[in-house]
Amino acid sequence: MSESSSDSSRSLIPSFLYSSDHHRLFQSREEPATTMMARLKSRPSVFQTSSSVSSNGPASFAIATPNEKVEMYSPTYFAACTVAGLLCCGITHTAITPLDVVKCNMQIDPLKYKTITSAFKTTIKEQGLKGFTRGWSPTLLGYSAQGAFKYGLYEYSKKYYSDIVGPEYAAKYKTLIYLAGSASAEIVADVALCPMEAVKVRVQTQPGFARGLSDGLPKIIRSEGLRGLHKGLVPLWGRQIPYTMMKFATFENTVELIYKKVMPTPKEECSKPVQLGVSFAGGYIAGIFCAVISHPADNLVSFLNNSKGATVADAVKKLGLWGMFTRGLPLRIFMIGTLTGAQWVIYDAVKVLAGLPTTGGASPATALAPSVSA
């Protein structure tokens, strides 16, 4: 093969296959076998990447190495974030179902479930330990769907809004980018969550209503129609959108501050376990703020989904304004703080397994630059 004819195929063929040394190698059929083997051993392996090949030829590779990373902001990147979001929300919300049962009952019937301790005792007495698992199936399905949309669309929206305003304004108004991206994602995520949330609350707070998702979902549809599954959507937006905006913006800024003010080394020099520890700390702090800002709406969602035909005025009248803000709040702070911290660890752990960097630690202008790769 001539030098000119090989130029057109160099992007597809490893460079050592068309180097001049190897032309001579295979052109000489009379060359002794020992000399030929020596020449072969001195050349790079076909399975090596371009970084290990001689610099005489252009970069190319035959087979991708296992350590090859996902390209940032590619379809595969957003798919990985979607799967990570599905796992982190589905697993964590299902794991804290016992705490959720107690919280919802305290919100619905404050006279019967007066304190956290009495709520646990009453639940065990009336329903046994099995009562603490009520509603786990709609929780798993609902929050898995919500997490997939929430995290996947957040990453996409953050990139989209940063591209619109440009690197300078993305860095200057980074918190607004976080807030806008998370709000946009949550609007869609709650539409996926709402039907399962309606079933979950009924199953957890009305013993005898249904055993779980399989009989609870058809029962609501028969009695209230499909609208019954979405009647709590507006209050759910009222709870989840501020919650998610606080969750992502606080997390991003907290993690950035930890790396700047607390960690002795830059993020890039920290080990992956250390970075995941920072993710948990940032997530827990964010969870505390999330719980406080979204708690009145959480009380409202529980009340409306539990009482057929109830209104916001009915909820305020029964719970009172003070009760709307404080009823079950200590338990929810502990629950949401732990939940959010665990979510960010799982989310970032999945990203690390995919060869991606953990979340946070840089402004959108830096983190979202098109030329940056994982």
Q: What topology emerges from the helices and strands here?
A:
Blueprint: H1 3-7, H2 20-27, H3 33-41, H4 75-95, H5 97-108, H6 116-127, H7 136-165, H8 167-172, H9 174-205, H10 213-224, H11 227-230, H12 233-262, H13 272-306, H14 312-326, H15 329-353, H16 364-367
Helix pairs in contact: 4-7, 4-15, 5-6, 7-9, 9-10, 9-12, 12-13, 13-14, 13-15
Return the structural class.
Answer: mainly alpha
Total beta-strand segments: 0
Identify low-pLDDT runs. Answer: 1-31, 39-68, 370-374
- Give the biggest sheet: none
Ends apart, CA distance between termini: 38 Å
Mean pLDDT: 79
Q: Which word captures the global form?
A: globular
Order of helices and strands: HHHHHHHHHHHHHHHH
User: What count of helical segments does DSSP give?
Assistant: 16
Global Rg: 28 Å
Keywords:
0% strand, globular, 374 residues, 16 helices, mainly alpha
How would you sum up this structure, described in words?
- The protein has 374 residues and is mostly helical.
- It is 70% helix and 0% strand.
- Helix 5 (97-108) crosses helix 6, helix 12 (233-262) packs antiparallel against helix 13 (272-306) and helix 13 packs across helix 15.
- It is globular and about 55 Å long.
